[in-house]
Amino acid sequence: MLEQVQSLLSQAKKQIEECQDLKVLNDIRVEYLGKQGKITNLLHSMKDIDKEERPKAGQLINSARQEIEGLIKDVQIKLNEKVLEEKMANEKVDISEPSKVIEKGEIHPLHKVFDKLIDACVSMGFTVLTGPEVEYDYYNFEALNVPKDHPARDMQDTFFITDNILMRSQTSSVQVRAMQSMKPPFKIVSPGRTYRADSDATHSPVFHQFEGLVVDKNVSMVDLKSMLTQLLKMLFGENTKIRFRPSYFPFTEPSVEVDATCPSCGGKGCRLCKNTGYMELLGAGMVNPKVLEMSGIDSNQYTGFAFGPGVDRLAMVVNKIPDLRMMFENDMKFLEQMK
Ligand code: DAH
C-alpha cells in the first residue's frame, strides 16, 4: 500500500509540476481525486486490507490526497496569474500612439445656403412654414392664378400623380396655404424641395426653392426692394447691389426678375457673370390682388409682396459650381472641396 501511494503521489507531482494549462490541471485533479480517481479508488479499496492496517493506510492516502490538492491549488494560482498577465499584456494601451483621424461630417453646400436664408429671414421677423411636396393642383396652380389652360403651366411641367395631385413645381403653393390659414398681417418663408420634368446642366427634376410672402396694410414695392437688398447683402456681403427687371408671373402684379451684383467680381464683370456684372437670382413681385381675393384676403385692405429664389442656383453662385447636378450626386471629392 505504501509503495502504491508513494508511486501515485510522485506520478501526480510530476504531472502537476509540468502542467502549463488550467484545463489540463483540472483533468489531473479528476484523474487522481475525482469520483473515479486513482486516490479515491485507493480509499475505496481499504475495505480489502486488514483491520489493523486500515487507520494507517487511511492516514497515508489522506495525506497524499491533501498534498495533491495543495499542489494543484498552488499551480492553479500560478497559472491564473499567468493568464491575467498575458491578458494585460495584450490589452496594453500605447498612449504615445497617434490617434485615428475622425472624419467630421459637414453640412451639404445646399443646406448651408438654406440655413443662411432661414437665419437671415428669421432675424427679419419671418415665420418658417413648410408645405407638402405632393400637392393639389389647386394650391400649386389654380389658387395662384394659373388655371388649367394657362400657358404659364408649360414652363412648370411637373409630375402628375392624378389629374388633381402633382409633385409641386414651386414652393409658391405654400403662399396659398399661408393665406388660407393665417390672418394678416404675416410674414412667412418656406424652404423646400420642388419638381419639374427637366434635366440638364442647370436643371434637375428635383430642385429647391425658398418662398417668401408678406401680407400687410400698405406694403409696397419699396418694402420688397429694401427687404431683398437686406437679404442679399446678408448672403453675399455689404457691397451687394440689386436691380429689378420687369417680368411676368401670374401670381404677382407687377412682377420682377431680381439681379444682384456678381459675388465673384463685385460687379466689374467676369466669366461667372458673363461680363455683365450681375447675376439673375430670383423672381418676385407684388401679390396679384386676384390671388389675395381667391384665398379670402380683402385686397382693398391688404397688399403683399412675394419672392422665390431657386436655392440650387444660389448655392451654385456662392460656391462657383458649374453644373447643378454635382449638388445631387454626392461625390465625396466634390463635397470635400465644398468644406
Ligand atoms: N415660383 C416662381 C417659379 O418657380 C418663382 C417666384 C416668382 C416666386 C415670383 C414668387 C414670386 O414668390 O413672387 O418660377
Outline of this structure?
By secondary structure, the protein is α+β, with helices and mostly antiparallel strands. The protein contains 12 helices and 9 strands. A 7-stranded mixed β-sheet has the order 1-4-5-9-8-7-6, sandwiched between helices.
Question: How would you characterize this protein structure?
Answer:
By secondary structure, this protein is of the alpha+beta class. The chain has two domains: 2-91; 109-337, Bira Bifunctional Protein, Domain 2 (BirA Bifunctional Protein, domain 2, 2-Layer Sandwich). Helix content is 42%, strand content 19%. It contains twelve helices and nine strands. The chain has a seven-stranded mixed sheet with strand order 1-4-5-9-8-7-6, sandwiched between helices. Strands 2-3 form a two-stranded antiparallel sheet. α1 (2-18) runs parallel beside α4 (54-90), α2 runs antiparallel to α4 (54-90) and α5 packs across α10 (311-319). The radius of gyration is 43 Å and the shape is rod-shaped. It starts with a helix and ends with a helix. The model has no long low-confidence stretch (mean pLDDT 93). Residues 170, 172, 211, 249, 252, 283-285, 306-308 line the site of 3,4-dihydroxyphenylalanine. 3,4-dihydroxyphenylalanine (DAH) binds next to β8 and β9.
Share of residues in helices: 40-55%
The largest pleated sheet is described as: 7 strands, mixed
Radius of gyration: 43 Å
Whole-Å distance between the termini? 88 Å
Beta strand count: 9
The assigned structural class equals alpha+beta
- By CATH, the architecture of the largest domain is named 2-Layer Sandwich
Count of spatially separate domains: 2
Strand order of the largest sheet: 1-4-5-9-8-7-6
The SSE order reads HHHHHEEHEHEEHEEEHEHHH
Ligands: 3,4-dihydroxyphenylalanine
If you average the pLDDT, what whole number results? 93
CATH class category of the largest domain: Alpha Beta
Percent of sequence in beta strands: 15-25%
Count every helix, treating DSSP H or I runs of 4 or more residues as helices: 12
Q: Would you tell me which CATH topology of the largest domain applies?
A: BirA Bifunctional Protein, domain 2
Question: What shape does the CA trace take?
Answer: rod-shaped
Low-confidence stretches: none
CATH homologous superfamily designation of the largest domain = Bira Bifunctional Protein, Domain 2
